[in-house]
Amino acid sequence: MSTSITSTWTAVRPVTKQNWHSTIDLSARRSVLLHILMLLKSKYGKVDTKISYIGRRAELALYAQAFSAWEYRNPQTLSRRLHSLVVKLHLNNLATSEDAAFKMEQTMSRKRKSSSTDTQVGKRVRYEVIENATTSPLFFDGNRDFLENVCSFLDAREVLQCAATCSLAATQLPQFVKSIEVTTMSMMKLAPTTRSTFFQRFPKLESFSLTGRMQAQQFNFQDEQTLVARNVLVRSVLHALSNAQLPRLAVFSLNFCYSEGLKDHVTSQIATVLADPSNKFPRLHTLSLVGNCISDDGVLDLYDAMALPRDGGSHLALLDLSQNFIGERGHVQMQELVTQFAACGSSLIVNVMNNLLTANPLQ
């Protein structure tokens, strides 16, 4: 049984970077730099002045980011740590474009909401005819249990297709949707106004999964516009989620659908939504954030949200953070979270496979 973790939570994160820099001498740093230059040479075929400069900057960044001397000097993870650094630096260059696009979408959504309340004089006659034809209560009045039973055999797409047949169906049927699995491509086709109120249509939603293309995580950066659009989409989805009441939501998945820069701002937004003091999602037991370039900073934000004391405790049982860019600091932080849950009689599994370190699930 899940219990409150108030007694083990503190306002100060229990894990910070250790002072290990004094244990690393100049020869050790030169050795790491040599390995970096060898990796760059294998990729670019030579080491000229420009490549040498890039190598030195990369070594300095890895030196500053590493949680311990072991992580900094580990040759087995150097290639992936270097790759993650390059990816996140490039994605960080798109932050300004992303913020501008997100702000524009929110503005458009508010304008369309306000204009939708205006009377459309030019379509008045046609509107009245449609209303008269689609508001017959013969089938929908008193058959709520029957409709819910029928919808239980349909997926979300089929239920919404039925809901499009008339106004009463559009009002009632979405309330019976319990599971939604949608791709980023499909979600992008929705109007900003529809996305902003997306979750309000499904008050009984128990499972939501938004999935992108795994190939998009290879990062050839040929289509920066798509990378920006995906992040804007996820941020708008999270904004809609923060304005919804979903007391039955148990599973929430965002897999391969956004790409973090240096600040892990999207993951921070997820943490903010989950840490809402009103506890809008009391039954949430599975949170999956696979393949989104999450680093240690994002993990720290998630830790702050998960460890936050709340009435009734937390039902979270699985946190899937596999295939991200989480290093030693993030691993240690998640182990601390697992320990806190265990101390309160709750079992939490954190999947950190295929990150910057080779590790088994924490439990």
UniProtKB/TrEMBL annotation:
It comes from Phytophthora oleae. Gene3D superfamilies: Ribonuclease Inhibitor. It comes from the Eukaryota. InterPro entries: LRR_dom_sf. This is Uncharacterized protein.
